[in-house]
Amino acid sequence: MKNSKTLIIMALTATLLAGCGENNSEKIITKSEIGVGALRAMPLQMTPEVLWAFGRLSDVNVSADGTKIVYGVQYYSVEQNKSNREIFVMNADGSDNQ
Prior knowledge:
Blueprint: H1 2-18, H2 48-53, E1 56-62, E2 68-77, E3 82-91
Antiparallel strand pairs: 1-2, 2-3
């Protein structure tokens, strides 16, 4: 249980530090609705815009007791030329994803 609490504290700390940037008035970068064929006007092909819209999985770690997983998903904004990483914690069986 102690290791699970440590993972959660680390995830919360990383999230708080990520919000301490130089200018927090900009829109937070999150999951995009763009996808292959997501819009009727969009062709059914992979484009650079679609690739940039995908979240990238990173920093996957398992707690020492094997019950929790912490991971990050990073999203990018071409317009802002920035990215945002969100931290998630879930049970090892895939339930309770937060």
